[in-house]
Design a protein that fits this description.
With 256 residues, the chain is mostly helical. The protein has eight helices and two strands. The chain folds into two domains: 4-161, no CATH class; 163-193 and 203-245, no CATH class. It has helices at 4-32, 47-62, 68-94, 114-140, 143-184, 207-218, 223-226, 235-245; strands at residues 107-108, 112-113. 22% of the residues are buried. It comes from Breznakiella homolactica.
């Protein structure tokens, strides 16, 4: 039997990751004017929100032994510290910068910015004051058997999705390197398999292209270095990619 406290935090992590996915997806979809499945994973979870919620909750408990002002400072800064560390770790792991705040004023190495740090601090206050008590109350109502089942199901899914998502980012990195070699040699990308055209319907993108769509959709920062490689694609593929990503302004807009 897994300790109940561990189960509670695992379910709390899952729910906050799901809430984070909703927030990110709504924000990104509104910004880009089409549905965006935000986040690193394929499923409806953004783990950094789950980790952030767990860390803030743990700090809020420990902070009761600290002077009130110091406790709140530590708690409000923790999401920003987590974001910076996560950005640094992902860049070291993949060799890619998955998000970039360089276009925002008051940023540090493009990993964090004052604007979003203020947003995270505000969410931390709402989390501790409103969300955390309500969520744990409902988790405690589940009972040990249902808690074990839900936690086990989520964990099995989560591990599988993380493995597949890591593979997809490495696949994107390799595909981008292969395109660079094609451009260097003056050659054009050719799909591994011919995709038959259907009358009255858009031609399906080749599997190689479909596999990189998730990282490109999830992380606008990746598009900055990928867009110059559009020249390696046949016209019909380039037009489809430009239709989807060509109007983005994340990497070109002036600092706000």
């Amino acid at each position: 039997m897994i300790p109940q406290k561990v189960l509670d935090y695992l379910l709390y992590f899952a729910l906050m990751s799901f809430v984070g996915w909703i927030l990110e997806t709504c924000f990104r979809s509104f910004k880009e004017k089409h549905f965006v499945n935000a986040g690193f994973l394929s499923g409806p979870f953004v783990p950094i929100y789950g980790f952030g919620a767990v860390i803030i909750t743990m700090i809020s408990v420990e902070a009761r032994t600290l002077p009130p002002v110091l406790g709140w400072i530590v708690m409000l800064l923790s999401p920003t510290v987590l974001e910076y560390v996560t950005s640094w770790a992902m860049e070291k792991l993949f060799g890619l910068k998955l998000w970039d705040y360089s276009h925002n004023k008051f940023n540090i190495n493009g990993r964090i910015s004052l604007k979003f740090s203020i947003c995270w601090a505000a969410l931390a206050v709402v989390l501790v004051a409103v969300i955390q008590p309500a969520v744990f109350t409902r988790i405690n109502l589940l009972g040990p058997y249902l808690s074990h089942f839900l936690a086990g199901a989520f964990l099995a899914y989560f591990v599988t999705d993380v493995i597949q998502s890591v593979k997809s980012v490495y696949n994107f990195k390799q595909f981008q390197a292969d395109l660079a070699k094609l451009i260097e040699k003056g050659r054009e990308f050719k799909p591994s398999f011919d995709i038959p055209r259907r009358e009255g319907k858009k031609q399906k993108l080749p599997p190689e292209i479909r596999r990189i769509m998730k990282p490109l959709s999830a992380f606008p920062a990746l598009r900055k270095n990928f867009k110059p490689k559009f020249s390696a694609f046949p016209d019909w593929i380039r037009e489809r990619l430009e239709e989807r990503f060509g109007k983005d302004t994340d990497d070109t807009k002036k600092p706000d």
